[in-house]
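ASSEMBLY PREDICTION REQUEST
Request ID: AP-0331
Submitted by: J.K., bench scientist
Number of chains: two
Total residues: 664
Priority: normal
Notes: Please return the full assembly, not individual chains.
Input sequences:
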Amino acid sequence: MAVRRSIVGIGSPRELEEALRAAYYLADEKVSTAAYLALALGKPLLLEGAPGVGKTEAAKAIAGVLGRTLLRLQCYEGIDAAAALYEWNFPRQMLALRQQSEGGGTIDIYRDEFLIERPMLACLRRPTETVLLIDEIDRSDHEFEAFLLEFLSDFQISIPERGAIRAYERPVVILTSNRTRELHEALRRRCVYHWIDYPTPEREMRIITMRASGVSERAARAVVSAVGRLRREPLAKHPGIAEAVEWAEAATLLNEQGARWPEAFRRSLGVVLKDEDDLIQIAPKIDAILAEAGA
Amino acid sequence: MDTTEPIAHFLGFTALLRRAGFAVAPEQTMAWLAAIELLGPQEVGDIRRAAYATLAPQPERFAEFDALFDAHFLGATAAAVETQPSEEAPLKAADESAIGPEPIFGDEARESGAKATTAERLSVRRFEPGDEDATLHRFARALPARLPRRRGYRWRAARGGSGADARRMFRDAMRNAGEFIRMRRRRRSLRQRRLVLLIDVSGSMKERTRAHLAFAHALTRAADSVEVFTIGTRLTRITRALRLKNRDQALATAALIVADWDGGTRIGEALDAFLAIPRFSALARGAAVVVLSDGLERGDPTAMADAVARFSRLAWKTVWLTPLAADPGFAPRTAGLVAARPFLDELGDGGSLERICDHVLDLARERAA
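STATUS: Completed
Returned structure:
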């Protein structure tokens, strides 16, 4: 197993944690350990967790820390190799052939200029400049997952017209899943795994004050407490961290325009709960929740 | 310094995990050892975090994983590790390869169907021919066209397909001196989704098991990919028996394999057993899962809800058909079904064969939210 003890000067989980904080991502010890191990062991990092806990943000922050471009591959039902790997630029190939038949001479229509690079191929070709983010892998089909398996173990793909392309160094790959379905054991096995939970109140508090501008400590505390309460309610969609940050910002804005405190939170509730049924269900309880949160 | 002893201690932990039912691959063990070396380790927390990252326990089992870790490395008492002791015998899973024990009796005073009992009564049963032939025949005729389909991964050449088949066009062009003569199209191939049918054969369902099995037989014969299991006090796979063409013969064979006719109901445990066997749980992945049961659970209702939740994440669609829903004012009342309701795509009427057939034929309709 190829082990790199240090990547761009990061030689321990703690150093990575500090670097991530500088990139405005507050990682706890577990995330930074998992991410550091993934980088050091050259394995893909699989982040699972409820929507809105900052999985994609983590990937962006890691790319930022490493100073690499983030290549994002958003998965969906029906995604296939053409969307993930490469495609031939058929119109250009056709044009080139026409030109050639008129002007004479020979032409290789499988040259680089006729190849449309998709994220996975781009990552293989420039493993030291890129971070590949395979986002929401749980949305893709099982076949695509099986196809990824091959890619993630060898970091090699083959193009029939060109032969195999292999990364000269193990690239950094981050996968995220909302866990709407169970991933294959084989995929989990190949990755360094981390389950991202909702943050502790103190950490969420720090995230809000770091991310949102001009939010008072009192408002942030109230938001954290109320959001924590909402996450225990049986809702269709629980508020994530981004929603909490937006709520704090929205309520602060309304407050500056003259709305009083609990009222500002109540009026901006649509920022946190984005489902009609959820809003109806919470409506009778919201006053109690806000009062309890000290808003 | 002798390095073998600490390594043996670490390997002991992965062995312990495997005994507790965690899937740990050798490459994960290697990654863990490499991670420990990499981290220094300064404290036991480092080892624990490395274990979490590389051995990847499932979130539901974090507490169990922690307890095992403490027991192994910190010498905590093992009492916390043991799962709750059950007063009932552990649930057994049977495959066709192992035909159940000797039938104890053929006929006995059977209890009223309304009550689920805990006793695991092994009995054997002979089926009488029924009068639902016409329904099943119609069902089998209609089924192949109406089963849910999923898009295959491969492309097929097709007229009126959605995409241009450029590769094929280039081939043609080469034969015609570089001229593109015809537009070729292609589309994704479609494949039938697998159906997994779980039939409750407990005492409370005994009036219906015959009809359910006849239905399962018709289904197995008509669709490409079907798996049928019975659940009661144990889990039994009867797919192979039902593949026989002659229905009476198929049902008789199935009757021999299943050892828990009209026994008690431990649905949660039976579903757990299904999920715990990778060979079986792989069958539910991306499949349409149909459970024919009244949901009268004698065991722990939360276990049943947890199992259904896992099913819903694994399967494409999870449908529960209960004969109790034949009553128009039906609302799930049993603790197990109430707890499992949020994870079901559909909780429908399984009161008659016609209704069950309709539900299965409608599986491909718009996926329930």
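REVIEWER COMMENTS: Chain B touches chain A through 42 residues (CB under 8 Å).
SIGN-OFF: pending second reviewer
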